[in-house]
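Saturday, quiet lab. Running sequence design on the structure tokens for the scaffold JK sent over.
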């Protein structure tokens, strides 16, 4: 398994988001950021399940659903790979949206208001200029 991929393979077992959904998001994320490129093989179901200490059926479900939406290709027993896509920019926007939503949810849970969050974002971009 690629070393760069290992850093992104983190499942939050305390999250209300099902593990297979988290895994789907992770796969989409690593594809969008270029860790996995078109035609590159994904880790096998068994290999990934062992690494994440989850049931292989969970990985199989994530892979199956990603395959049904065209993000990846392949099938159990033959292997899975990253599909080429002309929708890469749309995937990146979707991932950015998901990550931003997580950020906002955490900030709200910590007690920040909408204006507090906007202030943090504004400050961040001021510093980056």
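Result came back. Writing it out in full:
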């Amino acid at each position: 398994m690629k070393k760069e991929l290992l850093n992104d393979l983190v499942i939050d077992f305390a999250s209300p988001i099902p593990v297979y959904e988290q895994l789907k998001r992770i796969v989409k994320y690593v594809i969008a950021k270029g860790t996995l490129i078109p035609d590159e093989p994904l880790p096998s179901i068994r290999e990934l399940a062992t690494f994440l200490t989850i049931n292989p059926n969970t990985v199989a479900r994530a892979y199956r659903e990603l395959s049904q939406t065209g993000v990846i290709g392949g099938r159990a027993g033959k292997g899975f790979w990253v599909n080429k896509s002309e929708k890469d920019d749309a995937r990146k926007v979707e991932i950015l949206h998901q990550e931003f939503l997580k950020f906002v949810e955490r900030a709200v849970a910590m007690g920040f208001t909408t204006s507090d969050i906007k202030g943090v974002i504004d400050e961040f971009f001021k510093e980056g200029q």
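Notes for JK: The domain at 3-82 is CATH 1.10.10.10 (Arc Repressor Mutant, subunit A). DSSP finds six helices and two strands in the chain. Ask whether to fix the surface positions before the next round.
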